[in-house]
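Translate structure to sequence.
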């Protein structure tokens, strides 16, 4: 999605479909019972926005999606969120750092 020109980002385009899948999978990850540390990485507003976008993509169809907002979110905001989550995954929390090997 990064590097995708706005005019190339539309319902049915590969980048639009990829962005939709990222939202669905990312929110799915946050719904897992063991995602507490990851959820703590995001603000409540970010979680709520992801949930709303996921619901629109998964249930309401893309007709309800504001393409301009979705492009902005996909190319500017989601990469920042994903980077933060990647850092959280790569850096174990202090509670998990007991010297024992991870499973």
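Result:
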């Amino acid at each position: 999605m990064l590097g995708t020109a706005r005019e190339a980002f539309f319902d049915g385009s590969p980048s639009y479909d990829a962005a939709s899948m990222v939202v669905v999978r990312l929110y799915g990850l946050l719904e897992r019972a063991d995602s507490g540390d990851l959820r703590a990485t995001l603000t409540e507003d970010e979680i709520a926005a992801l949930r709303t976008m996921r619901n629109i993509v998964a249930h309401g169809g893309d007709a309800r999606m504001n393409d301009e907002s979705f492009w902005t979110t996909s190319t500017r905001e989601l990469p920042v969120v994903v980077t933060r989550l990647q850092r959280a995954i790569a850096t174990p929390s202090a509670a998990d750092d007991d010297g024992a090997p991870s499973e």
